[in-house]
Write a structure and sequence with these properties.
Helix content is 19%, strand content 31%.
């Protein structure tokens, strides 16, 4: 038997509530900059870390937890080794709600990282994040906590 606990955290927060944008390759690096309003020469950011309305799983957190409980396959190796804990998966929710480029940013091994990625890859489309009433790409870091129960 096992238990799955789900939480949500933002990948990064901008200064004074402003969203952060990633330029170039789409990775966290020195190319990250705070988005300032009003600059005519300024390009729209590729990916926001914070949006006015954050992306959401269809049906909310309760539906997300139910989905994960239904689809989760606790890896035999993790059960055998009694490995449990939190796997952080980061991905981008695009303007249509598709989940792009899921990556484990903090894992546990023993098959739990692969299972967390599998779960994110089979999730239904999310409700996209909004900035100024327009859908935008938003980076999301999703903690998935695995606990094996005796």
């Amino acid at each position: 038997m096992f238990m799955l606990v789900l939480g949500r955290c933002a990948a990064a927060l901008g200064q004074a509530g402003r969203p952060l944008a990633i330029s170039g390759s789409g990775t966290d690096s020195a190319t990250q900059s705070a988005v300032e309003g009003g600059g005519a020469a300024e390009a729209a950011p590729a990916v926001y870390h914070v949006a006015e309305v954050m992306p959401a799983f269809p049906g909310g957190a309760a539906a997300q937890l139910a989905f994960l409980r239904d689809k989760l396959k606790y890896p035999e190796e993790a059960l055998r080794k009694r490995v449990a804990g939190k796997v952080l998966v980061q991905f981008v929710v695009d303007e249509r709600g598709h989940l792009l480029d899921p990556q484990v940013v903090r894992g546990l091994g023993a098959g739990l990282d692969e299972e967390a990625l599998r779960l994110v890859r089979i999730m239904p489309w999310w409700t996209p994040g909004l900035v100024g009433g327009q859908p935008v790409k938003v980076a999301v870091t999703l903690p998935i906590v695995f606990r094996a129960l005796e």
